[in-house]
Design a protein that fits this description.
With 248 residues, the chain is α/β, with parallel strands linked by helices. Helices cover 32% and strands 25% of the residues.
Amino acid sequence: MKVILYGAGGRMGKELLALIEQGFCGASIAAAIDKNFDHADDFHLPAFPDCKIDADVLIDFSNHICIQEIEAYARKYALPTVIATTGHEKEELEKIHALSQIVPVFYSANMSIGVAMLCSLAAQCASAFPKADIEIIEKHHSGKLDAPSGTALMLAQALTKIRSGAALVFGRSGKRAREENEIGIHSVRAGSIVGEHEVIIATDSEILTVKHEAKNRAVFAEGALRAASWLCTKPAGLYGMRDLIDNP
C-alpha cells in the first residue's frame, strides 16, 4: 500500500512515518508532504497537487484548512482518502461529503479503535439510564488548537442519538441549576496530555464512568493505517470507525 501523507512534519505525521518505516500494514511512502516544514530535504516534495503521484491512498494529518487542496487532488486522481484531521468548519465538512460521492473517504475525529468502542459503550450506558445526568470531560496537551476536541463532539453526537433533543452545554459558569436534558462538555488543556476522554453518567443513587486514555500518539497512527488499508478495497462513500469495526 503506497501512501501519500499530507502533514508529514507535524506530531502525528512523524508518528505515521515512523510506523510506515516499520512496515505496519505493509505500507510504504509514495510522498510525504508538509508545506510548513522547515527541513524539506527530509521529505519527498513533488509539486502538489499539480502532478500525479503513484499511490494507493492519501492520509491527511495536517490542518482542517488544507481540505480544499486535499479534496481537489483526491478528486482529480480518484484517490481513496483518510481524513484524520479535526476542527473542520461547515463548508469544509461539505467538501468532505462531496468528495465521498466520487471516491471512498474515511473520516473520523479520532483514529483510535478504543475511542470508537468508548462511543459505543457510552451510548449503551445512556440508553440504560434514560434519566441520568451526562457529562463529557476531555483533556489534551497545552498546544491543541481546537476545543472541545473533535472526539468529545463525536461522543456527544453518539449520545444525542440516544438522548433526542439534548442540549449541549460547553463548560459551566454563572449561577443556574443543571437542566434535565443537558450534556455537558468540558475541556482541559495542560502539559503534554496525549488525549483523555471520560463520560460520566450519574443518577441520584449511582455513578457510571467510561473512559479512554491514549498513552501515546502511535495509537492514532496505527488506526489511520488500518483505516487506509481497509479503505482501498471500498467503493465511493463516507466511512468511519464504526464501519471498520463492524466489517473488518
